[in-house]
Amino acid sequence: MQENEDKYNDFLHYDIPYGSPLRAHHLFAVVLYTDFSDLCFAFGRSFRKIKWNESFAAVKERNAKFYFLSRYLREAVQYYGSDGVEEKGPFFTGMKCVMNMPSFALALNGPTSTSKQKAVATRFAGDGGMVIVLDNQRGNSDYERFWDCSWLSAFTEEDERLWFGSIYKVEVASVIIIASALNYRRSMDAFWKFDAILSGQRNMNEIEVSTRDVDIVRAAMASALGEPFAANPNCDAYALDNFFAFTRHKTHVVLDLYQLNQMKDRRLTDFVMHNIKKQEAHDITYDDTNILKPLIFRLFPNLQQITIETSSGDIFA
Predict the structure, then answer these.
(1) What gap in Å lies between CA 229 and CA 45, rounded to an integer?
(2) Given this model, what pLDDT does residue 9 score?
(3) Considering only CA atoms, which of 114, 135, 132, 101 is closest in space to residue 250?
(4) 296/216 Cα distance (integer angstroms)
(5) Positive or negative, the Cα torsion across 125, 131, 137, 142?
(6) Are 292 and 283 within 8 A, CB to CB?
(7) Measured distance CA(104)–CA(81) in Å, rounded
(8) At a CB cut-off of 8 Å and minimum separation 6, what does 142 contact?
């Protein structure tokens, strides 16, 4: 019985019995990542293509050279790290260039360093970069684990938090462009709510939708579809480019009908879904209730999978 319980609690299947203590090799992995910049850079590169035409097999081959570092670092974060109950955001990460965000409910699958200090991320970004603001206070992002490196790193002033091996998704709360000092909090807030609807986020009954959110998403959708739209002060070219990247990047939509049915304001949901209503088998109607709108296939041309979760716990993909 105990063996079965251990397997059930070992949710990542790393053969770590439930309740096992943190081991020295986990701490060594964190120190290697935080204190040795060249190693950290090479390790991070092994999670992505170096060239656009590099094969997935080649990326895996490069990453395999860091097998033990990858394994122990992920174990440290996912088994022994903190979550949103223990520490809330925001968290800041600096990028040395300006780039688009392909997702607003973000899965941090590769190792991602953030800081609790905005100044640290701003200094790293430099004059030509940007600061991404992440948060873990809405949806189910508070379940996502991270490792507080501040007490172990040789660079304590960085106040670093490490994310690695996403299970849930964190919120992109804002993007700040250093050169222009523009803060995209309003557009990112609206885009996150729309992405949360399409990503199976929990606690959707707590999400408040404003008219501004609806107007931002409506303008961004029209732009992505090549349709005319009214100018919106919260949707400049950079904001629209982010939403366009999002529509091209998203290949999997998750619709949790129970969660969506709990939303008080469904104006964002109405863009992609007909009326949502709880129905038993004996009272299913033959109209468009609980049916996707065709627009979703135009908006996300690279969509490969749609997963629908029901209040009974059934999952259809």
Answers:
(1) 40
(2) 67
(3) 101
(4) 17
(5) negative
(6) no
(7) 23
(8) 83, 84, 85, 88, 136
- In the three-class reduction of DSSP (H, G, I as helix; E, B as strand; rest coil), residue 33 is classed as helix
Residue 88 near residue 136, CB atoms below 8 Å: yes
Six-digit token string for 200: 């199976």
Q: How is residue 72 written in tokens?
A: 């122990």
Q: In the chain, where do the E strands start and end? A: 91-95, 105-106, 112-115, 130-135, 147-148, 160-163, 170-177, 252-256, 305-309, 315-316
Average pLDDT on 51-59 reads 91
Q: Which residue has the tokens 């904001």?
A: 239
SS3 (DSSP) at 254: strand
Q: What share of the chain is helix, strand, coil (3-state, %, to 5)?
A: 40, 15, 45
| CA-to-CA dists, residue 18 to 21, 25, 27, 142, 164, angstroms | 9, 18, 19, 22, 20
Tokens 């080649």 found at: 58
Determine how β-strand 130-135 pairs with β-strand 170-177: antiparallel
Q: Is 246 left (phi over 0), alpha (psi -120 to 50) or beta?
A: alpha
Give the per-residue pLDDT at 290.
Answer: 84
Task: Report the pLDDT value the prediction gives residue 314, as an integer from 0 to 100.
Answer: 56
Give the mean pLDDT of 183-202. 95
Tokens found for residue 22: 């943190």
Is the pLDDT confidence value at 3 over 80? no
Task: Return the ∠ at Cα 91 (arms to 88 and 95), rounded to 5°.
Answer: 170
| Own/partner long-range contacts of 124-127 (Cβ < 8 Å, ≥24 apart) | 124/94, 124/96, 125/94, 125/95, 125/96, 125/178, 126/94, 126/96, 126/178, 127/178, 127/179
Cα–Cα dist 163/285, whole Å: 45
